[in-house]
Amino acid sequence: MRIFTAAAVLTVLGAATACSTEADMKAVDPSGSGGSAASAPSDGAPTPVPDGEVRTQGLVMVLDDGDGPELCLGGVAESYPPQCGGPALTDFEWGDVGFEEASGVRWGQYALTGTYDGTAFTVTDAIPAALYDVMAEPEQDPLAAACDDATTTDTTRATPEDMDATLAAASALPTYATAWLTGNTINVAVTEDAEGAEAELRRTWGGMLCVTTVERTEADLNEVNQELQAALGEQLLTSGSFAPDSLDAQVVFDDGSIQKWADATYGEGLVTISSALEPAA
Questions:
Q1: Domain ranges (residues) in the chain
Q2: CATH code for the part of the protein at 218-279
Q3: CB 25 within 8 A of CB 252
Q4: Distance CA 5, CA 160 (A)
Q5: What are the start and end residues of every segment in region (Disordered) (predicted)?
Q6: Which has the minimum average pLDDT: 10-14, 43-47, 223-227, 272-276?
Q7: Residue 76 CB partners (closer than 8 Å, separation 6+)
Q8: Please, which residues bridge with residue 277 across strands?
Q9: Res 8: pLDDT
């Protein structure tokens, strides 16, 4: 599916961005009690609704293109003005700072707290980016080196051209799963015969190289990713492979039931679910 170059080694597998579909989401509380409900459609994927106030994880885009403000939890098109969509916002006030306007569109970054009923987000607190203060957390690189003992055999064969040739050779391996860079180290994952794969790659690469074994190929992850997108539907914001042998998916809200469903459906450790909205308390 992807061809690696030194400039672009990793592409998200089938990233699915649902910018404007969250407004159509429906959630059913079969008990009628108003608690945290998780209905199960025919595909088995739950659609939980938060019980109590939730908040966004930091700043998110709020946009009004004339139909009322929306909470953009998914992708945002980098146009001017930007384009995005999501759950409708009620009781939202722009305030005096923090937004821009152009071509009849108003938008800005806000940290929001409120309640979410599966369709609309009712705002109880909105902090614009200009007034938002949070201690920055160190970013973690999900693509760590595959091993601690990567070796070099011939530094004269470690040019950018050698790297491109080696990444191309890696993708042609019959047991190829994926490849990525950590610094000047080429990491390659195969489903079997790591020693044979390393010997083949040493034909073109003398720099730092690490070959490791995983269970699933890139095609396997693509297939699971497509199934995941179909099962989660409009509550899915993004999904893709950011590390070998695993998938990451972000949904509008998960109380843990979607993660349990993913573990039961695909096995523990394959799919990691994150929630764009989290409990406020």
A1: 22-130, 155-213, 218-279
A2: 3.30.70
A3: yes
A4: 9
A5: 27-53
A6: 10-14
A7: 19, 61, 82, 83, 84
A8: 56, 253
A9: 33
- Report the alpha-carbon distance of residue 232 to residue 226 in Å, rounded: 10
Which residue blocks in the chain are alpha helix, DSSP H? 160-171, 194-201, 218-232, 257-266
**Hey, is 210 helix, strand or coil?**
strand
Phi first, then psi: give them for residue 256, nearest 5 degrees: 110, -20
For residues 258 and 268, give the distance between their C-alpha atoms in angstroms, rounded to a whole number. 12
In the numeric block, which tokens belong to residue 198?
A: 């390393």
Check whether 225 has a pLDDT greater than 60: yes
What single DSSP character describes residue 77?
B
Question: In the numeric block, which tokens belong to residue 221?
Answer: 């992850």
Tokens in use for 218? 């890139």
Cβ atoms < 10 Å from Cβ of 34: 9
pLDDT in tens, 22-71: 333 322 232 333 333 333 344 578 999 999 999 999 999 999 999 999 99
Q: Which residues pair with 114 in a beta bridge?
A: 54, 123
